[in-house]
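In response to the reviewer comment on reproducibility (Comment 2.3), we provide here a single inverse folding case reported in full, input and output, so that an independent group could reproduce the run without further information from us. The structure tokens appear first.
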């Protein structure tokens, strides 16, 4: 079993970058926060498109997102996760109005991308955490910008990051042969659609329930096994 060292490094980078972001947040005028926010939104949309295209099989990707979204709504996933975030905020007695939004948005940006999927699986299979270390550097700088806009909730995204990203590494260490290159491509394309939804939310173009779409990452694996 390979320990998710890359995820621990990633967590440290987010905490470090987030701490710098807090210092910047307190001195940054609102107009600068706004342009940073918009820049992150545009980059996130570009990232989502680059991940999603080309579709390995459009029908499987589409049905994965549709079925996953229905499951998410049935489980009331978005509200449940929002309540968990609110509970953490109340326990810590924090007054940050964007705590929930920051935690959830940061988690989705950090953990749904191709570098997360590829890096965590690669570390689990071979013990090579170089991709996750590269991701850690990027996430550290991203957290500076995110915290300057969303506040301290971004730093607490390391909790679901540990569960999701670290869990993926452990899963890959036990079932390495299961994660073929083709399956990873399907996961990446589906994750790209979710990333695109995050970008749309950041730019306030339309509210996309990305959390309710998270089960699509499981559905795409099932459909892959059935039809590919």
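Designed residues, in position order:
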């Amino acid at each position: 079993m390979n320990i998710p060292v890359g995820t621990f490094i990633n967590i440290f980078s987010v905490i470090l970058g987030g701490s710098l972001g807090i210092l910047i947040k307190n001195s940054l005028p609102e107009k600068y926060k706004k342009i940073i926010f918009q820049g992150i939104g545009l980059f996130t949309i570009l990232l989502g498109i680059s991940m999603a295209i080309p579709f390995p099989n459009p029908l499987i990707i589409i049905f994965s997102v549709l079925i996953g979204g229905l499951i998410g709504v049935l489980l009331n996933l978005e509200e449940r996760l929002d309540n968990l975030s609110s509970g953490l905020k109340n326990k810590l007695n924090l007054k940050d109005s964007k705590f929930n939004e920051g935690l959830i948005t940061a988690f989705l940006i950090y953990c749904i991308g191709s570098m997360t999927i590829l890096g965590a699986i690669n570390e689990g299979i071979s013990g090579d955490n170089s991709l996750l270390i590269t991701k850690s550097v990027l996430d550290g700088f991203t957290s500076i910008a995110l915290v300057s806009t969303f506040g301290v909730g971004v730093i607490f995204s390391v909790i679901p990051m540990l569960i999701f990203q670290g869990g993926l590494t452990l899963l890959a260490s036990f079932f390495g042969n299961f994660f073929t290159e083709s399956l990873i491509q399907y996961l990446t394309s589906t994750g790209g659609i979710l990333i695109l939804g995050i970008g749309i939310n950041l730019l306030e173009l339309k509210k996309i329930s990305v959390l309710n779409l998270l089960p699509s990452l499981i559905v795409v694996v099932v459909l892959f096994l059935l039809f590919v």
